[in-house]
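Case study B.
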Amino acid sequence: MPELPEVEITVRTLRPKVEGKELRALRVLDPKIPQVSPLLGLPAKVDGIFRGGKHIVFAFPKKLLVIHLRMSGRLAWDEGESVPKHTRLILEFPHGRVLFIDPRRLGTVEVMEEFSKELGPDALGDLSFLEEALRESKAPIKVWLLDQRNIAGLGNIYAAEALFLAGIDPRRPASSLGPAEIARLKQAIHQVLNEALAAMGTTLSDNAYLTPAGEIGDYQPRVYGKEGLPCPTCGTPIERVELGGRGTYFCPRCQR
DNA sequence: TCATCCCTGTGG
DNA sequence: CCACAGGGATGA
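Model:
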């Protein structure tokens, strides 16, 4: 579910709630999740919360608590008492709590000394590295963009959306993109991510993603999930193919 | 570089 | 019932 914009919105929403606050206790409700509580030495003050690719990092004076939401996870800020269905972890603060809710149980929770993941440059940052990096891979550009070691933050929705805006066929080998196409791609990635941030992310029909405040994201994909529907630009039916095992949506006329 | 697996839920 | 799902680690 969550890609860079959803994770970034999550972090921004939680920041004023948890930064500088004391984490009193941590309750693990799912045996799949490791007992991280002793590792953190609670209670402990949250120095900061930040995003690393799609990871959410709670920074304590000596340790980091790193959460990845994977497909169906989300964090919620809650000041009530009830425990919603699929709650896997609860971070207890004096004035409220953070709930990790994850129906599919694919999300991960770990404690690290320092943040070290094999992540490429952040998708929101300077993308000038793409010129050279794309030359070295024959993988389909869509598959390349989804590999977090290449570029961090894009997922299945926004990779498809960026390629649509750039007018690039997702099946094209990365190394086949010319300078003008790469320039369009860089611009399109930033545009799509910034649009999604402004919209507070994307909430699909299943409502799996909500901000920590419980609000939906208003981003409206142009091609993702739109198989058979008319392309917003030219009206040609959107097609779906499988790339790297993931559903991939594109306009066969606008994207070449 | 690919399939397979991890899980559970939903929609056709 | 089967297909599919905003992600990623793993092993062949």
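The two ends of chain A are 28 Å apart (CA to CA). The remaining cases will be described in the next quarterly update.
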